[in-house]
Specification:
Elements: H1 2-34, H2 67-76, H3 85-95, H4 100-104, H5 109-135, H6 145-157, E1 170-171, E2 176-177
Antiparallel strand pairs: 1-2
Amino acid sequence: MLRLTSGRLGGLLARRSTATLTTSSSVRTESKQSHEVSETVDMSRPMYYDRLDTPLPDRPYRDVLSDAEQSLKQKEKGPWSQLTDEEKIALYRLMFSQTYAEMKAPTGEWKTVVGGMLFFLGFTGLVIWWQRIYVYPPHPRTTDDDWKAMQLQRMLDMKINPVQGLAAKWDYDKGQWK
């Protein structure tokens, strides 16, 4: 009886795993057909980047050029005195995405950083305030000024450390400090 149920269980599991494998492969092929696959970047090839410390990137900003841009590149090989300022700027923009002035231009990122820091400092202050009110126990009575005064008077009455301590600095006849 036990052998029969274990055999049926094994067959059932085998059928289910086969069905799962065929279903997942068909879903996988459907997903390849209906969705675009993102391009992978080959990190071994030269890449373009704008950095202040590296004035010339490994490759130009625009690799694929239109017909007008190709004719401008051909015109670049001639004397530059014949190029207009707009053409020179267009040639620069083919090679570089940003100028140094654009790279050095201040951004508003510091405002976000300072705002985040102030937010978290304020939140921390609120947490500390809440803990002082609701979490921590009240201050012990030994930290009150009245208690400290009574403790000092008791130490003087008991003449604690009369050679070099408090009792040595107290004038018992006048009732004041020496």
